[in-house]
Amino acid sequence: MTARTVDRAVAALAQRQRSVFSRAQALDCGANDGMISRRQASGTWLDKAEGVYGFPGVPRSWEQDLWVACLASTAGPIVSHESAAALHRLATFKPGPVVVTVPHGDSRVARVATVHQSRNLPADHLMEIDGLTVTNVPRTSVDLAMVCRRSRLEYVLDQSVADGKTSYDEIAAVFDVVAGRGRKGSRLLRGLLADRLPGYVPPSTRLEALLLRVLSRGGLRPVLQYPLPGRERPEGTVDAAYPDVRLLIEADSRRYHTRVRDFAVDRERDNLAMLAGWRVLRFTWDDLTKRPDGVIDCVARALRQLAA
């Protein structure tokens, strides 16, 4: 492959990326270390970040800075938070900040962007805008709770829903998946959603959020934290329920439900519920993480039987 052919391939690629490209991309186009060094030395390729290059004479822009941040790491940065809000044109957010989320830390991208870390980035929370992978509006709305004051977050959410960009149900569905103990902004967002969705109950634990995610994927969204039936004065709640057919769903933690005492308490709860005319299904962490389709099938079959 000739040098001219390589230059044309790199230029064509960069044209789709705001005139920037990564070292790995240049190598994929046929360049080698010597060719890259010569172009850097001659000023044909300019350093934008470690391992990211651009061309002289191209004005810098916010969109280009986003591309530089996303190309600066092999960890797969996702445009998120304030930057995603600006791309989605959410109220009060304008181009400027460069903010990305990565599954683990990377010093290279940290030099050119504000970086958040999260391994909880399901594909259905993401979308593509101008070639960049970006959190969608519901996920961006949830993430903004980490960086916004209540008054601003309230205004942004209400305006986004009024503009038809998302709905409170969509935001709640994302929050159910990512909410966890200690996540910044969770209490704030939980309160805002509770005010806007009568009867909304967010998951109280990571395991409960996983259960909800699995069931929702199968179109089987339950009522969360349902009062425990079978007592004159209900004490405590069950993880999930389908009250119309009197079906209870419990998720057993791999850690906290292994002791004999907990086992006995669970059996007592199950017995009381069954005596009150309810059916109980229990699923383990392994069921939910390794056999989610089996969980969906089991619950769907139970719902069909009880509805017959």
Question: How is this structure best described in words?
Answer:
This protein has 308 residues and is α+β, with helices and mostly antiparallel strands. It has 3 domains: 1-59; 61-196, no CATH class; 203-308, Endonuclease, Chain A (3-Layer(aba) Sandwich), CATH 3.40.960.10. It is 46% helix and 17% strand. It has 14 helices and 12 strands. It has helices at residues 3-15, 23-28, 33-42, 62-71, 81-87, 107-110, 137-144, 150-162, 168-178, 186-196, 206-217, 260-275, 285-290, 292-307, and strands at 20-22, 46-49, 52-54, 78-79, 99-102, 114-117, 126-129, 132-135, 223-227, 237-242, 247-252, 279-284. The strands form 4 sheets. The protein has a 4-stranded mixed sheet with strand order 9-10-11-12, with helices on both faces. A hairpin with a 2-residue loop joins strand 2 and strand 3. Helix 5 packs across helix 7 and helix 9 (168-178) packs antiparallel against helix 10.
Instruction: Kindly report the spatial arrangement of strands forming the biggest sheet.
Output: 9-10-11-12
What's the gyration radius in Å? 25 Å
What is the chain-wise order of helices and strands? HEHHEEHEHEHEEEHHHHHEEEHEHH
How many domains would you count in the coordinates? 3
Low-confidence runs of at least 5 consecutive residues: 254-261
Distance between the termini: 69 Å
The amount of beta strand, in percent, is: 15-25%
Outline the biggest β-sheet: 4 strands, mixed
On the 0 to 100 scale, the average pLDDT is 88
Return the structural class: alpha+beta
Q: Would you count the extended β strands for me?
A: 12
